[in-house]
């Protein structure tokens, strides 16, 4: 490759678009532009291309790459409008230049919101206003409105098996993460709370909070499972269609994991957390709900176990909260097997929760991380985020996403564990990020699926420190 100009297959690469009239080539997302002397990272990148259309890079700007064809490209057979209408710009580069794209494209993480910004709406605000106007018109007409499950209080029979799968996947996931966390170290910053999976922790200077050092380096300490899988709780509702939890009842109603509450409302029966199962649907007439079923059916527990607030108080907690779930085929020495099962359980839990949330409503605050499983949010005044004084401490409820229910903690991805190198700040734009659970299982030997390939950025070549200054 020495002594030759770099080449690129522009016609067969979907990440490039050519505008022959303006004489420029636009590079899309996932394109890395590397300059060098034909050796090192630039030479490795150049070996990936085939000789289809040979061009000579002339001028690189922030958005476009101007070029002109080399003489060898003019000898190709005519047929493409590019070969006959390209013009040169007259600018020469000091170093050869190579362009590389994986074809898959890198996936950008969601932008971190400011404290004054609200979470994006799942349903557009105009559609919500249109829906509210239609409901207001329906309330003026005195007629029965037919409700479908689960709005009428009945279960969606097709989603009951999905709820049991999510419940079982959560138990397997907790067991696998607890087991692997004893072998793969988890680090957390004591100042900003950033998490790093693996040893040694990275040297990327992103600690920018009150009290952090001027060089923005992290103060690492040993983390635990709750830093990889943060617990999101929700109030447990005996009747999901009943009244919302008030501020005075905040200490008398049990708070359980939100994913567990979603499974209970979708059909999973847990003796420690009973819920009301209706046998007959409710009716809605002129905006009012009519429930002709008895308040406590015969198959429920006796009324002696119900206090004045209508909620159960039991001292015994479920086994999945107090102890780790023990699998019958557990082998403490098979760490890779735990990682494979845990990664499959993670995918099954998130995909199943997404299916349940299509029917069963989940609410979240637009400014904080509070979540309430049910058709409406609670009335507890505990929000301390942006302009909470104007809401009297109440939450700004909106439709939740699966990331609100099961939040993924994104950490820097370590490519090669055998190398033992530390992630440094100068090369942070070449590193990828994945959820901490996925990174934990990946370092334990599990093979990560294609869903996280764009986030991991393993197809981006890492330059050496002496080559990094030559990268555009």
In terms of topology, how is this protein built?
Layout: E1 16-19, E2 24-27, E3 31-35, H1 40-46, E4 55-60, E5 64-69, H2 71-74, H3 81-85, E6 97-101, H4 125-140, E7 144-145, H5 160-180, E8 186-189, E9 195-197, E10 220-222, H6 225-228, E11 233-235, E12 255-257, H7 258-265, E13 283-285, E14 288-290, H8 319-322, H9 335-357, E15 362-365, E16 371-373, E17 397-399, H10 402-405, E18 410-412, E19 433-435, H11 436-443, H12 453-456
Antiparallel strand pairs: 1-2, 2-5, 3-6, 4-5, 7-13, 8-9, 8-10, 11-12, 13-14, 15-16, 15-17, 18-19
Helix pairs in contact: 5-7, 5-9, 9-11
Account of the protein in words:
- The two termini are 21 Å apart.
- The chain folds into three domains: 16-101, no CATH class; 125-179 and 229-405, no CATH class; 182-223 and 408-456, no CATH class.
- Mean pLDDT is 75; it is low at 1-16, 18-104, 300-304 and 306-325.
- The chain is 23% helix and 15% strand.
- The radius of gyration is 28 Å and the shape is globular.
- Helix 5 (160-180) runs antiparallel to helix 9 and helix 9 (335-357) packs antiparallel against helix 11 (436-443).
- It has a four-stranded antiparallel β-sheet. A three-stranded antiparallel β-sheet has the order 7-13-14, with no helix packed on it. Strands 9-8-10 form a three-stranded antiparallel β-sheet.
- With 472 residues, the chain is an alpha+beta fold.
- The longest helix has 23 residues, at 335-357.
- A hairpin with a 5-residue loop joins strand 15 (362-365) and strand 16 (371-373).
